[in-house]
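Thread: "does anyone have the structure for this chain?"

Original post by V.I.:
We have the sequence but no experimental structure in hand. Need at least a predicted one for the grant figures.
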Amino acid sequence: MGCYPKRGPASPFRADHPIAWSACGRPRWAVTSRAQARALASPSAGVLAVNAGSSSVRFAVFDAGAPFVLRLSGKLDRLGLAGAELTASPGHAGPVRISRDRPTALRQLLAWLEDRRVFEAVRVVGHRIVQGMTRTKPERVTARLLADLHSHTAYDPDHLPLEIELMEAIRSRHPRLPQVACFDTAFHRDMPAVARLLPIPWKYGRMGVERYGFHGISYEYLMGELARLDPRAAARGRVILAHLGNGASLAAVKGGRSRDTSMGFTPAAGLVMSTRTGDLDPGLLAFMARRQAMGPAGFERMVNHESGLLGVSGFSSDMRDLLRCEKSRPRAAAAIELFCYQARKWIGAYAAALGGLDTLVFAGGIGENAPEVRARICEGLGFLGVRIDARRNAGNAPVISTRASRVTVRMIRTDEELMIARSAWLLGLRR
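Reply from O.Q.:
Generated one for you, tokens below.
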């Protein structure tokens, strides 16, 4: 049983409490001491959650309590590009134009937050860190951690430099404010060895070249919500989580543990995504080098920023645009069909890996808001016992399967910022 907490009807996850981490880094949803309970009751205690992507930064400010209360959220979009802007809600005029120079844009973001006295109101800042290597739980941001992350930027050049830059900027401007790093890879660290292994020479594995998996913060949140809704399914069931958004991945979970996930060494692997290819024939790299004189940087740009729904459709990476145009634009229809086919195929593969399927969860921007996509993905899954109720699905109901369905199909709205805030708050209380 390892060091996992007992889960079940007698001790379910609690979605209205922060996370306590067990010895091996897995979460328990409970307040762990009277001191923490008293701190949670303080209306002035706040936490800032920062979720940096490759070209955007989402942020949210919460009052920490039971439950956490969202006070402010916003996004710095198109970072490093022309037209960069900052939007926020509630009650904040916008959008605010931001410099396309990235260091300047980050300074503008922090100054905007300082003007609103955010850093005076919060007691801890939590960050999403996409590549955590072998880490299994959140950590306080220290000089040692930052130096270690700097040494690993080659493993995630799209995300880590920006994430480090933000942590260092806040540390410089507010040196006494605790910061906590929450790692997107931690959820998958106890995957079976066979699921982490890449079929390349062994020496590269010893360098850390393996399948890590991502979207772990979202998956932790989804499992917490599933445990609140159906403790038995979360603790003992065979569950597939489908986080379908600009970045898209699936995770196969059994007994509360990640058994496999579609993203691998980088977030570019697995499913077709908005601008990422998903899995590719590795021979394509050599072909493009020979025929197009494409070097590593060009290939990486194509794989991450020019492909996926955008590459196939030829005009948009946004599923909403494609759905509106699919009847008049064949390439839009092809992109949607490919996305749904790939997702359906991965679900079938993970049902095999789990030895069956009890619960399927849709989340993410597409998974939560595109009933047409959910329906098309599920159309070919009848052999697994998946039956969708068209009315419930169209209405984005929490459960979209029929009563006769052997598999419970759910739609759960994920919240990475809330998950970051809970984790950061709990660790930030420790001295």
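V.I.: this helps a lot. The longest strand covers residues 69-77.
O.Q.: and Residues 330-354 form the longest helix (25 residues).
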